[in-house]
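Now for a specimen:

…
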Amino acid sequence: MPDANGMILDKAEENDAEVRREDQDKINEFGQLNARLHEVRSEVDSLKKLLEKIDDASTELMMGNGDRVMLRLGEAMFEATEDEATEFCENEVERNQEILDKLSEEEADILEKQAALKKILYGRFGKSINLEEK
């Protein structure tokens, strides 16, 4: 019987365990957690890029000469002082850092749940099931 990587398992490695409803539920839960893990990691990457852009903007503001600057919020632009823009950047960094921290916690929770499910499923099915990413 081929395993998840397309390799043929030895007779000793084959596991003819019947997939029970509770096993299928665990497999489904693992798949849902894996999908959410990818979403969380994508969101984390996006937030890190945004924080980097905000940091770059803050650096530019520090090098300014006290003039008024244009601040962009979504599609709109408005004029602000350097102090107002700096305060805005600091608030955005704080707000996005909180979101990033929550996503990091969620990622850790997902990995913990996946580890527990892997232990159960590999214990039941051995090498007949592949729960690893390629």
